[in-house]
Amino acid sequence: MYYGGIEAGGTKFVCAISNDKFEIIERVSIPTTTPNETISQVFNFFDQYQLKSIGIGSFGPIDVNKDSKTYGFITSTPKQGWQNYNFVGDIKKRYNVPVAWTTDVNAAAYGESKKGNAKSQKSCIYLTVGTGVGGGFVTNGDIIDGYGHPEMGHIILKIHDQDDFKGNCPYHSNCLEGLAAGPAIEKRNNKKGQDLGKDDKTWEFVSYYIAQALVNYTLTVRPEIIILGGGVMKQEHLLPLIREQFKALMNDYVETPDLESYIVSPGLGDNAGITGSLILAADKAE
Ligand code: ADP
Ligand code: ZN
């Protein structure tokens, strides 16, 4: 018997099975197209195994309120075809095992807190900067949700005084996602982040916005560690720039751990989300 994990992203789904130690035995990557197409491939994968339980970390927004009629649904996503999709319902109908359900970033924060760079910390924030920006917060072993799950990517930020770009979030323009996600970087330059030079002015702006967000999260919940993942963070020179801007913006107002150990990359690399999903599956099976 295995644990099943799904990291459901806007670009691809990663499905995996693991043993009791959360070592990944098999994994597949499936393109995110329509729910019908994608889920039938998810079924093709898991149908091969005996499962104890399944954990899902999904792109969102999603409904995580257990009392809601649409619990387990992807809700108002801009992603075509996925609005009001009953994800947990479809998985349960097929497998009839316990299913854990949370956001992709909550799952990544959970994975990092159990097996990654936040293993020795009581609390951690995981922020992804990719196609979108999202964050999850784990403290004392619990994923923190409120009325819904956090939406840390959409906090409103002050525009850098040399930046002409107004942001591209259709809801708020100058939120973190609208200013610093991959598509915002592409829109301001007419080329993708991966094709920009290290010295491009964009990185000063992007690190300023991410640092502002991290100052806000720090002041709000005082986490012990902040982990930054996602495609944009593959730019290795960004992390030191973010720490520098964080220091300037925080201006020694509150104490944090040494910034080299406070603002870090994922210890599990690209496996943070899938590992968290597998551990959540195990929790649910108990
Ligand atoms: P997803 O958000 O679908 O999970 P990613 O986290 O890989 O996927 O994010 C994809 C975004 O990150 C794209 O907008 C892409 O341009 C950007 N990106 C990917 N790799 C890099 C890189 N090396 N440098 C800068 N931006 C990158
Ligand atoms: Zn926004």
Protein architecture, described:
The chain is an alpha/beta fold and 286 residues long. It folds into two domains: 2-104 and 270-285, ATPase, nucleotide binding domain (Nucleotidyltransferase, domain 5), CATH 3.30.420.40; 117-265, 2-Layer Sandwich (Nucleotidyltransferase, domain 5), CATH 3.30.420. It is 34% helix and 22% strand. It is built from nine helices and twelve strands. The protein has a five-stranded mixed sheet with strand order 3-2-1-4-7. It has a five-stranded mixed sheet with strand order 10-9-8-11-12, sandwiched between helices. The chain has a two-stranded antiparallel ribbon with strand order 5-6. α6 (201-221) crosses α7 (238-250). The longest helix has 21 residues, at 201-221. The protein starts with a strand and ends with a helix. 45% of the residues are buried. Bound molecules: adenosine-5'-diphosphate and zinc ion. Adenosine-5'-diphosphate binds next to α5.
Q: What does the secondary structure layout of this molecule look like, with pairings?
A:
Layout: E1 2-8, E2 12-18, E3 24-31, H1 35-46, E4 51-58, E5 73-74, E6 85-86, H2 87-95, E7 99-103, H3 104-115, E8 123-129, E9 133-139, E10 142-143, H4 176-180, H5 182-189, H6 201-221, E11 225-229, H7 238-250, H8 259-262, E12 263-264, H9 272-285
Parallel strand pairs: 1-4, 4-7, 8-11, 11-12
Antiparallel strand pairs: 1-2, 2-3, 5-6, 8-9, 9-10
Helix pairs in contact: 3-9, 6-7
Bound molecules: adenosine-5'-diphosphate (ADP) and zinc ion.
